[in-house]
Amino acid sequence: MKYPFPVGRSDFIQGDEAIARAAILAGCRFYAGYPITPASEIFEAMALYMPLVDGVSIQMEDELASMAAIIGASWAGAKAMTATSGPGFSLMQENLGYAIMTETPVVVVDVQRGGPSTGQPTLGAQGDVMQSIWGTHGDHSLIVLTPATVQEAFDMTIRAFNLAEKYRTPVALLTDAEIAHMRERVYTPNPEDIELVYRKLPANKEEAQYPFGDIHGDMIPPMPIFGKGYRTYVTGLTHDEKGRPKTVDAEVHERLIRRIINKLEKNKEDIIAYETFDLDDAEIAIISYGTVARSAIRAVKLLREEGIKAGLLKLNTIWPFDFEMIEGIAEHVSKIYVPEMNLGQVYHLVKEGANGKAEVELIPKIGGEIHTPTDIIERVKRGV
Amino acid sequence: MAVKIYSKYDKVKYLRKEALPTALCPGCGGGTVLNAFANALDELKIDPKDIVVVSGIGCSAWIASPHFLADTLHTTHGRAIAFATGVKVGLPDKKVVVISGDGDLASIGGNHLLHAARRNIDITVILVNNFIYGMTGGQVAPTTPFGAITTTSPYRNIEHPLQISETVAAAGASYVARWTTAHVYQLIASIKKALQVKGFSLVEVISQCPVQYGRRNKMKEPAEMLRWFLKNSVPVSKAKKMPPEELEGKFIIGEIVSRQRPEFTEEINKLIKEVAERYGLGDDDAD
Questions:
Q1: Most buried residue among A15, A133, B43, B160 by CB atoms closer than 10 A?
Q2: Within an 8 Å CB–CB cutoff, is residue A367 touching chain B?
Q3: Which fold has domain A273-383?
Q4: Whether the bond into A224 is cis, omega within 30 of 0
Q5: What is the mean pLDDT of chain A?
Q6: Per the CB < 8 Å rule, is A227 touching B91?
């Protein structure tokens, strides 16, 4: 199969473009979207590329519909994606919850901009972190990935599809206006070198009877997609293993919700991704993710040059969250700094993880500007 | 005893027996709609394996889900048609049918209804209009007649009802018909036609809710509501000759529109072919 963009070599492209290309290489053949800054370029690229790879890109009437359509397409058997920014992400929360409840693999890209409300449409922010994890109502879990570069946006889009298919769950990819519109060198591998994961399908009719049953003991039911004659029943109501509504049975509800959460929690080791820089002998830790991690890497280098033993933990996923790892770091450092382009979101997760073993300090910044390395260095030095 | 009753009903083969009896109240029009749908499929000899049912939230969403034995997506409130759009594009060879109510499809989901009709995507919508939010306790709907009593218009309704069929026809649907639960054979015929039409089709069924609507509006018996439907039904052809003020409070029944228009999934395929011809990448063998 040929692709409408170069493969097996590097290209100089925007983050939004990288996400669209990666989605197509990951096997995405259904895209539904609604225009919104700064995510529209993902949609435009999909509209351009999809017909060339026998795929479909639809402009829906709003983000509620976009989210609904990709879930419908996923049950029809397609790998499906939508992309939006904060205001649209708010509208998608309703059906994101439906995707969680019905264990539907889909990928949702949220290109963050300043909020709340219409806020700062063209400027980057990290204000949607808690929304991406807890935006929809009820007890639940999903996977949230946080790229810091255009290359990572590309790589993590492929990973987002693989995780969605493997765990039968929605996956959110959180970028921001900076990554979306920044051009960087991106290496696109040859398609045959990209490892792709496909959802587990029922091996036979018997297995298809349990669209929501832990029949393999791995907490991930095979997905009896529509059109195969299984007569699958899918509902957002609390349902039993066969999919039948059981709305007032506390035991059924608990079993369902705990499995949905545990299938991710118990596979944290596989899902959680991070990188460390000079962390082993660090006395001061910086924990960062997304765009700000770029400045944090530089800050650690400069602090080391000045003889301050700083180290960085760069989170590539922010949910599920590895609270134990944070506690482990907290035991070996005197202080943890969390620079974020918000007024404290992952900060609270880190603080919970640190469990009082080290002081945790937030380095917030809002308004649309990224932290400079100096912003971080000055705060760290003040504490030394 | 229950088994005995169902065994007398030959369309039971289309239903999930374990989901019976339905959650619908005695006297509800929902059973008539389910029966009409089952009969339409039976007469057309459509295998339920070739159908995907999509529904939303509310009493009328429960007409087909979980009772109808086909692949079924029981979705969030108002969004059924948007979900159905994804299903239809993914499975263009299957018949995708949305069965839901007036509050679900024409109020909270009104925008999806309009745009699906505009796209003319090949989905059949059976919209059960009972003028009320039944499941939540009888609140006013965008279809509630002017002056009617509901739990959120306890004095009288001061809004005017949306003419759903006419609105959907104006938005571009291939086929739109309106009947009442007192016109069962005509309803079956229209559902059959809707299932066969290529494009967006809507069958609006005026249906009785004696419990939440009739009871508060001097028609607590189901039969009283059916008589009200029959007395106030005006065929489309006759309605065309009547002045608007005479049509106030009437139900215009029959085919509102039936026409051929380009269908969305066919247009998608045309576009893919066209793009491949003009900008085609070819396959690897062609190198």
A1: A15
A2: no
A3: Rossmann fold (3.40.50)
A4: no
A5: 98
A6: yes
Q: Which positions of chain A have pLDDT values less than 50?
A: none
CA distances A69 to A34, B7, B54, B90, B185, Å, are: 12, 38, 12, 10, 34
Let me know: does B202 contact B194? Beta carbons within 8 Å.
Answer: yes
Nearest CB to B72 within list A62, A234, A237:
A234
Q: Is the Cβ of A78 closer than 8 Å to some Cβ of chain B?
A: yes
Q: Does the ipTM exceed 0.90?
A: yes
pTM summary value: 0.97
Min Cα separation B263/chain A (Å):
14
CATH label, A9-193, candidates 3.40.30.10, 3.40.50.970, 3.30.530.20, 2.40.300.10 = 3.40.50.970
CA distance B234 to chain A (A): 34
Of A73, A232, A236, the CB nearest to B71: A232
Q: Does A75 touch chain B (CB under 8 A)?
A: yes
pLDDT tens digits, residue range A350-379?
A: 999 999 999 999 999 999 999 999 999 999
Residue B281 pLDDT more than 90? Answer: no
pLDDT at B5: 60
Q: Is the pLDDT of residue B121 over 60?
A: yes
In angstroms, rounded to a whole number, what is the distance separating the alpha carbons of residues A314 and A297? 9
CATH assignment of the domain containing B269: 3.40.50.970
Give the mean pLDDT of B28-52.
97
Amino acid at A198: Y
Q: Which helix (H) or strand (E) holds B123?
A: strand B123-129
Interface with A, mutate which of B14, B46, B55, B71 (most A CBs under 10 A): B71
